[in-house]
Automatic annotation (TrEMBL):
Pfam families: HpcH_HpaI (PF03328). The keyword Transcription regulation does not apply. It comes from the Bacteria. Its cofactor is Mg(2+). This is Citrate lyase subunit beta/citryl-CoA lyase. GO terms for molecular function: citryl-CoA lyase activity. It is an enzyme of class 4 (lyase). Its EC number is 4.1.3.34. Transmembrane segments: none annotated. It comes from Deinococcus enclensis. The keyword Transit peptide does not apply. InterPro entries: Aldolase/citrate-lyase_domain, Citrate_lyase_beta/mcl1/mcl2, Pyrv/PenolPyrv_kinase-like_dom, Pyrv_kinase-like_dom_sf. Keywords: Lyase, Magnesium, Metal-binding. Residues 8-210 form the HpcH/HpaI aldolase/citrate lyase domain.
């Protein structure tokens, strides 16, 4: 299965937790990332790979990706070979620092590059432009450690890096996805960070707990009210164009083609993600 819209939520699930992988099918995430990297201890890597292989044998209700171990690790080749042969919808590659790493892989599936080092941030534009890259995922934990910055409730030390990733992805038509929120008990904090991420321009968020999925879908989705406002704007624009006008007026503001295009994107996302009866 392939997504018809940018993922609002991408749920990480450890590859050494078969029950968690089974449950992930039912949680409503727009995409699931079966994780063979950070979430799996070295002594469990081989078993996790087999668990993921088994999980990919049956269809999923959403796109499923595999986060493989990075280049230069003992597990990289076996991870990628397993995922590709199993028919995964995409690969997540950790700690991508330059476009050459992506180009050298010659993958047959979309690649989601993790930007989680200072070098990765500085080279984000070239990475986003590389063939086969579908999106950029922020790895804020590793990035913060590498930058030696302190925790901040508004992520102030990381704002430049976060916006750099958004800028790079958007410049090349790729999907920027925000980093995980670590405290799964802090629902209010997670909601605030989702709002911040969307304000910065991210299209979705990586999540690590089932309870975070609905909140991310809501924060990065479209409400019925937003969809109706977009349809009303499009109606005003269509009427104005039928009269030969180059601009329209809606809710007291001038509307041009760029506003109509944005409204159409909102309607398209609402149509793609609204619950079906």
């Amino acid at each position: 299965m392939t997504a018809s819209f940018p993922p609002r939520s991408m749920l990480y699930v450890p590859g050494d937790k078969p029950r968690a992988m089974d449950k992930a099918r039912t949680l409503g995430a727009d995409a699931v990332i079966l994780d063979l990297e950070d979430a799996v201890a070295p002594e469990h890597k081989a078993a996790a790979r087999e668990n993921v292989r088994e999980a990919l044998r049956t269809p999923w209700p959403c796109p499923v990706l595999v986060r493989v171990n990075g280049t230069g690790t003992p597990w990289e080749h076996e991870d990628r070979e397993m995922a590709l042969l199993a028919g995964v919808h995409g690969l997540v590659l950790p700690k991508v620092e330059d476009a050459g790493t992506v180009r050298d892989l010659h993958l047959r599936v979309p690649l989601w590059a993790m930007i989680e080092t200072p070098a990765g941030v500085l080279n984000a534009a070239a990475i986003a432009a590389a063939p086969g890259v579908a999106g950029l995922l922020v790895g804020a934990n590793d990035l913060a450690r590498a930058l030696r910055c302190r925790p901040h409730p508004e992520r102030l030390p990381l704002l430049h890096a976060l916006e750099s990733v958004v800028l790079a992805a958007r410049a090349h038509g790729k999907h920027p996805v925000d980093a995980v929120f670590n405290d799964v008990r802090d629902a209010a904090g997670f909601a605030r960070e989702c709002v911040q991420g969307r304000t910065l321009g991210f299209g979705g968020k990586t999540v690590i707990h089932p309870a975070q999925v609905p909140a991310a879908n809501e924060a990065f989705g479209v409400s019925d009210e937003e969809a109706q406002a977009a349809r009303d704007l499009l109606a005003a624009w269509t009427a104005a164009r039928a009269e030969g006008k180059s601009v329209a007026t809606f809710a007291g503001a001038l509307v041009e083609q760029m506003h109509a295009d944005e409204a159409q994107d909102i309607v398209n996302l609402w149509e793609a993600t609204r619950p079906r009866a």
